[in-house]
Amino acid sequence: MTSVLATGALTLTACGSRSDDDKKGSGDSTSAASTNVVIGVDAPLTGSNSATGLGIQYGVKIAVDDANKNNLVPGVHFSLKAFDDKALPATGQQNATAITGDPSIYAAVGPLNSGVARSMQQVFASAKMVEISPSNTAVDLTQGKDWATGTKARPFTDYFRTATTDAIQGGFAAEYAYKNAGKKKVYVVDDKQAYGAGLANLFKQHFTELGGKVAGTDHVNTGDKDFGTLVTKIKNSGADLLYYGGQYDEAQLLSKQLKGAGAHIPLMGGDGIFSDTYIQVAGAASEGDLATSVGVPVTTLPAAKDFIATYKANNYPGDYGTYGGYSYDAATAIIKAVKTVMDANGGKLPASSVAREKLIDAVQKSDFDGIAGHVSFDQYGDTTNKQLTVYQVKSGKWVAVQSGTYTG
């Protein structure tokens, strides 16, 4: 991880932000010929989850560079300013305040973590600024706290996401585990965070509905490194699968210690563990482990070919395979929305305070083919792209074994 971050050569200021462009447009220009539009990016760029966070940052950077190179919005120069939330809700909220308080920033992509998103949503809503997450999957972020009872209400009209929700991911994972992998008895562990706990509960619910048994449940804390007691419980439970709701930082150590104790059962998790870093740290113990992630493999999509080539050619740090494509598409939705707002205003971009609000409606009406699939949003701000993929570690690499969606 240290070497990856060193390669990135990120320069973070005290407030955790970084711009990729020295141009600081005021954001309130009414002349399209001199307008610089900054897109904010919030993600964990250091510490926990930074491999996937960096994938988000550089996914947006490639989209911005492509827009400028191809003159996608004539007269507008796009740039990004990245903010490091360190996967901490409090830091995310501070970043949201900094982003919305900067008149040169018109909209934002991020964050990575659902728990961080909860701390940011109200700040963005108060500023009437578009926020598109390429990775948040907690259902309540778009459908409200009572969604599970069938009462859905969108809390924030400025919040969107290009990743599908855990309501679909949990069922998709459970169905694969029970029907395809033939697992009948699961031990369920989560990290007590919004994303991890929510996904683990949904997996457990769907798994038992299918006829599976739960051998036990437990929790860990983010940052834990010694899982000896938990490993003993899992080993003695008779479970034939460990389902983990959380991120790769803890999952990779848990898998390694579980196999080291002689419990040779696969660990399965959601998109939070789908990272090359997971395999690098867990080593041979990761062989056979499973993960679900949003969309279909980006490497199989013809539209993403140039994106992947650019990412590799520039040696950008982080994992592009998890959310890179969805980050690119989120940024593109903002870029296209800027053009829509300008076209409706005689080819000129209104002052940033006005443009921000108009961008909300323009993003809501997004309808285009992105590099990771079709991009459009339903009445809740959720992506209409419900595809998911199950991956398994085979010979030290994540290999796609099944793509589809869940309609149960």
Q: Keywords for this structure?
A:
15 strands; 13 helices; Branched-chain amino acid ABC transporter substrate-binding protein; 19% strand; signal; alpha/beta; Peripla_BP_I; Rossmann fold; Leu-bd; 40% helix; 408 residues; 7-stranded mixed β-sheet; 6-stranded mixed β-sheet; single chain
Characterization of this structure:
- This protein has 408 residues and is of the alpha/beta class.
- The protein has two domains: 2-164 and 299-375, 3-Layer(aba) Sandwich (Rossmann fold); 166-294 and 388-404, 3-Layer(aba) Sandwich (Rossmann fold), CATH 3.40.50.
- Helices cover 40% and strands 19% of the residues.
- It contains 13 helices and 15 strands.
- The strands form three sheets. The chain has a seven-stranded mixed sheet with strand order 8-7-9-10-11-14-15, with helices on both faces. Strands 1-3-2-4-5-6 form a six-stranded mixed sheet, sandwiched between helices. Strands 12-13 form a two-stranded antiparallel sheet.
- Strand 9 (241-245), helix 9 (248-260) and strand 10 (267-269) form a beta-alpha-beta unit.
- Helix 2 packs parallel to helix 12, helix 3 (89-100) packs parallel to helix 4 and helix 9 runs parallel beside helix 10 (276-282).
- The longest helix is centred in the C-terminal third of the chain and has 24 residues, at 320-343.
- The two termini are 39 Å apart.
- 54% of the residues are buried.
- Residues 1-15 and 21-33 have low confidence and may be disordered.
